[in-house]
């Protein structure tokens, strides 16, 4: 695993976010800047904004995660937001869930290289075996995976009642809630809310959508609510 490619130096705020794990966070940035680009996990243009857009933006999600929580990073991909969250919050029990074999291999290498206490699991959230193994999670986190209604359909069966989805979204957050909030409610979720994370260390702060699992799940919540979407929109929403 090539770790020698140049990566930007961490900003001062990285020290307060990662603490003693800052050297491991620097190493992860180096891995992303080298092998991460070679394997198509991030684009070359992302190198200059690795810290603000990717590592710090992911790590501050920990503000919305309870102590010692059991967390599932749904569609972990390059390890975002899961790996920075683990580094910033070593008290958490995190599973990095990813369906693609090449990304699973990457995640396993990263976990080994950084000496992380984390589980890497290959699979999709909607698979019965995955739901059985991961059910009862306190928090599901996700970044650039799917629209809110579909994401909630995949996340809800993994959550205990009272557990929460914490989804990094960005500027589209309010629009997604307006569009999909009713569907989330029908599928056992509370009213989605927009939250800001890292306001004291990031400009702009990370924007998330948070949904609490309120009730027992019906048929719709386990499978999501199908919707016709253009291929262009789907590719845009699922990109990293």
From TrEMBL:
The protein's Enzyme Commission number: 2.1.1.-
Identify its protein family. Belongs to the methyltransferase superfamily. RNA methyltransferase RsmG family.
Q: What segment(s) does the record annotate as region Disordered?
A: 215-240
Q: Which EC class is the enzyme in?
A: transferase
Q: Which UniProt keywords apply?
A: Cytoplasm, Methyltransferase, rRNA processing, S-adenosyl-L-methionine, Transferase
UniProt source species? Actinophytocola gossypii
Q: Where is the composition biased (Basic residues)?
A: 222-233
Q: Where does S-adenosyl-L-methionine bind?
A: 75, 80, 125-126, 143
As for subcellular location, the record says: Cytoplasm
Which domain of life, per UniProt? Bacteria
Q: What is this protein called?
A: Ribosomal RNA small subunit methyltransferase G
Q: What does this protein do?
A: Specifically methylates the N7 position of a guanine in 16S rRNA.
């Amino acid at each position: 695993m090539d770790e020698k490619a140049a990566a930007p130096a961490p900003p001062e705020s990285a020290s307060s976010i990662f603490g003693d794990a800052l050297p491991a966070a620097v190493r992860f940035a180096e891995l992303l800047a080298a092998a991460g680009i070679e394997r198509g996990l991030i684009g070359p243009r992302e190198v200059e904004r690795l810290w603000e857009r990717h590592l710090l933006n992911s790590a501050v999600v920990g503000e919305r995660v309870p102590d010692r929580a059991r967390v599932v990073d749904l569609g972990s991909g390059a390890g975002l937001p899961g790996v920075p969250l683990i580094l910033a919050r070593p008290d958490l029990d995190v599973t990095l869930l990813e369906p693609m074999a090449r990304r699973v291999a990457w995640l396993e290498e990263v976990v080994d290289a950084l000496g992380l206490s984390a589980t890497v699991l290959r699979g999709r959230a909607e698979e019965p075996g995955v739901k059985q193994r991961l059910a009862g999670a306190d928090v599901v986190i996700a970044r650039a995976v799917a629209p809110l209604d579909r994401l909630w359909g995949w996340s809800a069966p993994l959550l205990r009642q009272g557990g929460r989805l914490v989804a990094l979204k960005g500027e589209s957050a309010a629009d997604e809630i307006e569009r999909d909030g009713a569907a989330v409610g029908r599928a056992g979720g509370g009213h989605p809310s927009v939250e800001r994370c890292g306001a004291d260390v990031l400009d702009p702060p990370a924007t998330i959508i948070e949904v609490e699992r309120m009730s027992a799940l019906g048929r719709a919540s386990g499978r999501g609510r199908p919707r016709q979407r253009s291929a262009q929109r789907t590719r845009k929403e699922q990109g990293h």
